[in-house]
Amino acid sequence: MDQIVNKNLLKVTCASSDDAIAVLNPATDEILTYIPSVPTAEINGLIEKSKQAQLLWQERTAAERCAILRKWYDLVIENSDDLARIMTLEQGKPLAEAKGEVLYGASFIQWFAEEGKRTYGETIPTPASGKRLMTIKQPVGVAAAITPWNFPIAMITRKAAPALAAGCSFIVKPANQTPLSAYAMAELAYEAGLPKDLLIVLNNHSSVAVGDIFCQNDDIKKLSFTGSTQVGSHLIKQCADTIKRTSMELGGNAPFIVFEDADIEEAVKGAIASKFRNAGQTCVCANRFYVQNAVYDEFVEKLAKAVAELKVGNGLEAGVNIGPLIDMKAKNSVMGYINEAVEQGAKIISGGRSLEGLFVEPTILADVTQEMEIVQTELFGPIAPVIRFENDVELVEKANDTIYGLASYFYTGNLHRAFNIAEKLEYGMVGINEGIISNEVAPFGGVKQSGFGREGAKQGIDEYLNVKYLCFGGF
Ligand code: NAP
Questions:
Q1: Is 249 part of the annotated catalytic residue set?
Q2: Whose CA is nearest to atom 23 of ligand 1?
Q3: pTM, to two decimals
Q4: What is the percentage of the chain residues whose pLDDT exceeds 90?
Q5: Is residue 108 domain-shared with residue 43, that is, in the same domain?
Q6: Catalytic center at which residues (predicted)?
Q7: Is residue 283 part of a domain?
Q8: Going edge to edge, which strands form the sheet with 465-472?
Q9: For the residues 3-21, what does the mean pLDDT come to?
């Protein structure tokens, strides 16, 4: 951690002890540092503090809240090099990607700082004389979040920024594997003037215990979760007891489709960006490729050429495109998918080998068929299975044949086909001739078992607001 210039960002770190949680560098397997595990018995007390802080915060004007969030944004930008290094050290992604995530994460703070000023209500034409009707929007109260390790900053700011801008307090449990980025971001928020109890970050050895408390505590009025569909489903059930509002950003199985009328060079560029970013550990990344028969061989050949240029290694080294996977369980699972697909008849076009430590070669598998497990599951690794298709009807059926509905992508030069396919794909987001689609101004989220709720955009702040209807009589 010597490379970090602003030591304030690492204030949370502590010495090794029975209670401490070790944070590892997945590129080297070394322990970077330790963070405290907040005792389970103290978590309800922290929620009470958060509740008290929220009552004061909701009285502040949107302009006052905006000023603090803007300052937070400025400090994140000022510290972006340190934040990126912390992220690469604990998560493994290449430094340039980590810097990209810091800026992407910061963009949500900037956007929602302003959106907080625009949480308009409505006046409604009355159906009965003598009455005047209107709505106002009010913060839900204490908002809690549980976030994953693959985007340690952005998955937090996409929730914290709209919650705070709306007048909520925010309490988050980041993944135990990548907590340092979250604590560093919180330090900058406090420096910007945010009261400490308004933004609480906590970790505990048992994520299950934290989840139980978040779901059961009635003072938490909203739970926003990003992670696997399995855990999301469990949390929804648990939240039923307190009728808690939830947002769920869950798993994906994105199809990446290349039609015969596509610009193949562009499709290959989009495929590389979508598939291999973060070593394929991205909920929206291309998970399976469908390529029309006439251009199948050309696409596979050009993709293989582009993949051969990707450099695998420690994300801190210059020129590295693909870092390590997050842990050995993830690596074993990825290697298992490759081996199983090969046993079932898939052909390795490039890569396919397990490298030392947590590294895996970027891999292209051809002759993959719809029935193979590799097509049905979220891979979370640098593997590109490529499937043939003949026509649009067959393609739509195959692309929608999954429990997931987060992101999808297709390449075509035909405008009619573009509209037709975009409307038929059962996904919350569709990239058309584009492999990177997410930003702060557009609504991010899924359908089917990829979840519900939207992050970013004008919709993102509504997740943290209640609509109240006022009926004035006696006119
Ligand atoms: P995960 O196992 O569901 O974990 C996500 C978070 O939930 C972590 O903080 C984890 O804590 C915590 N957790 C695990 N079990 C829990 C439980 N029973 N109760 C309460 N909390 C619990 O998912 P992951 O493997 O970290 O992340 C990858 C998944 O996230 C993929 O499926 C990916 O598609 C999805 N994801 C979705 C989006 C989206 O926007 N839709 C974005 C990014 C990732 P610990 O890690 O500390 O144990």
A1: yes
A2: 227
A3: 0.98
A4: 99
A5: yes
A6: 249
A7: yes
A8: 122-124, 132-139, 465-472
A9: 95
